[in-house]
């Protein structure tokens, strides 16, 4: 199997898309290896005390609230992405590129709700349309609304692989539905994912999460049978994918290959530039459906998603996050018409179908928000602008890292910026023996990542778990330059 890397196109059509340049994955891999080979470079212990003082002295209201939360909410937080070291901060205001916590501290918002708010937080033109809709019919009727159709038409117009759309409640639900749909359409049972990828928390996909080849490591409370037909391949390993597809052919066949098109965990381990095209070819050869999980990449890497960027058409596309511009209930399955017809809805349906649905699915509130958010993304060129902000941030971070002689690695795919300081997600877990070898180290590196995140927060920067950054349309050059000065201050503490 040909796994060569195609050369990085420097300019060309990518210049106007959400991603201006694909990272040199081979060079990155060498840097990842160097990062995890050397001792950690955390914030110094004396500087961490200052960080702790920030939380204790400037975040008293958050602290009290987090104590209250702990008594009624397991772990004190409801969101997996909520930053909770040393304790979670509570936020009361969000506008554009900034957030304010309940103690009145202001931050640059690089979490952007985990990705959905490509237009920036609390974007006024969309908010206005939502208000109008709520005044007219409230958030939900359970019946057809014109905005459902308008949103579906808009998505079908932009996404090359989407001819029909079924709206659901979340990315997790949509992935679950996509797998059921693929099994219904193909009559096969196996699904193959890429190790380390996140596809939500359904029983069948809490498998090989975060770190490749970790299989059922996180599958607490999930019976073996539920993951019994899930398999994982190493990132970028097309030979392994071919072997699994061949083997499955002898025992029930592969219904679907699921990929996060940038690479697992939103490109934490980036794929080779040609990877998706080669996966497409393998799927065609073995009659498996190709599922692109575009929950993060949909609209963020451009209106045509990662499928537009890579020029690869999946059979099924899973959407979420940006689909409703940050408003609730973001999830959808899109795809080829012949496949999608196995998702026919409605009470009177008699055709054989994969059953999916939900009381609040496709509610008018989510649909009006999604429709106008995508129109605004179109009008403003949000993906490209946020992408250029990501480029500027990443270049600046790399300059600081070089100047300070740190082993850290920053790289980006447009508005998705990775900042690896502890390298916890880059440890080699490709075999059981290697996994056991790095288990304790992973704990230490994870703690370092938490401390880095806390240090960023104390310097007015909210990130995703201390290692990922989402930029938005609201990130002007001034915002990015302000952020870079703050990152420089944090790196001075190492
Ligand atoms: C690639 C990917 N797929 C699926 C999901 C699950 O989406 P949700 O959190 O809306 O259930 C996520 C969430 O972060 C994701 O990143």
UniProtKB/TrEMBL annotation:
Ranges in coiled-coil conformation: none
Region Disordered, annotated ranges: 1-21
InterPro entries linked: Aminotrans_3, Aminotrans_3_PPA_site, PyrdxlP-dep_Trfase, PyrdxlP-dep_Trfase_major, PyrdxlP-dep_Trfase_small
Cofactor: pyridoxal 5'-phosphate
Gene Ontology molecular functions: glutamate-1-semialdehyde 2,1-aminomutase activity; pyridoxal phosphate binding; transaminase activity
UniProt cross-references to PROSITE patterns, sorted A to Z: AA_TRANSFER_CLASS_3
Enzyme class: isomerase
The protein, known as: Glutamate-1-semialdehyde 2,1-aminomutase HemL
Organism encoding this protein: Rubrivivax gelatinosus (strain NBRC 100245 / IL144)
Lineage: Bacteria, Pseudomonadati, Pseudomonadota, Betaproteobacteria, Burkholderiales
């Amino acid at each position: 199997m040909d796994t060569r890397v195609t050369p990085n196109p420097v300019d060309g059509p990518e210049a106007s898309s959400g991603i201006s340049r694909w990272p040199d994955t081979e060079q990155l891999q060498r840097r990842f290896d160097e990062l995890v080979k050397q001792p950690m470079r955390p914030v110094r212990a004396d500087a961490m005390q200052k960080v702790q003082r920030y939380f204790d002295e400037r975040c008293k209201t958050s602290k009290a609230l987090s104590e209250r939360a702990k008594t009624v909410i397991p772990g004190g937080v409801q969101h997996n992405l909520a930053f909770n070291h040393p304790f979670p901060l509570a936020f009361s205001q969000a506008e554009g590129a900034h957030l304010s916590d309940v103690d009145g501290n202001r931050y640059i918002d690089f979490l952007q709700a985990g990705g959905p708010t490509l237009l920036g937080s609390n974007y006024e033109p969309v908010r206005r349309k939502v208000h109008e809709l709520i005044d007219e019919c409230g958030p939900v009727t359970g019946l057809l609304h014109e905005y459902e159709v308008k949103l579906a038409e808009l998505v079908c117009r932009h996404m090359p692989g989407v001819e029909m759309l079924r709206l659901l409640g979340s990315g997790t639900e949509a992935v679950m539905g996509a797998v059921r749909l693929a099994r219904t359409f193909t009559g096969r049972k196996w699904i193959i994912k890429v190790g380390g990828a996140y596809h939500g928390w359904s029983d069948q996909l809490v498998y090989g999460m975060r770190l490749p080849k970790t299989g059922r490591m996180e599958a607490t409370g999930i019976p073996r049978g539920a993951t019994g037909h899930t398999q994982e391949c190493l990132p970028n390993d097309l030979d392994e994918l071919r072997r699994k597809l061949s083997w499955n052919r002898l025992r029930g066949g592969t219904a679907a290959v699921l990929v996060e098109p940038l690479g697992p965990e939103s490109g934490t381990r980036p794929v080779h530039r040609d990877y998706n095209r080669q996966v497409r070819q393998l799927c065609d050869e073995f009659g498996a459906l190709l599922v692109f999980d575009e929950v993060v990449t949909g609209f963020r890497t451009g209106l045509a998603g990662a499928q537009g960027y890579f020029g690869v058409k999946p059979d099924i596309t899973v959407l979420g996050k940006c689909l409703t511009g940050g408003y609730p209930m973001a999830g959808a399955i899109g795809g080829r018409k012949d496949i999608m017809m196995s998702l026919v809805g409605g009470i009177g349906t008699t055709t054989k179908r994969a059953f999916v649905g939900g009381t609040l699915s496709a509610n008018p509130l989510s649909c009006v928000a999604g429709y106008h958010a995508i129109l605004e993304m179109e009008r403003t060129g949000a993906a490209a602008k946020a992408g250029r902000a990501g480029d500027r941030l990443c270049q600046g971070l790399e300059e600081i890292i070089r100047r300070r002689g740190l082993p850290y690695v920053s790289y980006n795919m447009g508005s998705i910026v990775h900042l690896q300081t502890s390298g916890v997600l880059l440890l080699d877990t490709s075999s059981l023996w290697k996994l056991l070898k790095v288990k304790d180290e992973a704990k230490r590196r994870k703690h370092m990542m938490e401390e880095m995140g806390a240090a960023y927060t104390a310097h007015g920067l909210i990130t995703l778990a201390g290692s990922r950054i989402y930029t938005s349309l609201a990130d002007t050059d001034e915002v990015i330059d302000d952020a870079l000065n703050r990152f420089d201050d944090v790196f001075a503490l190492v």
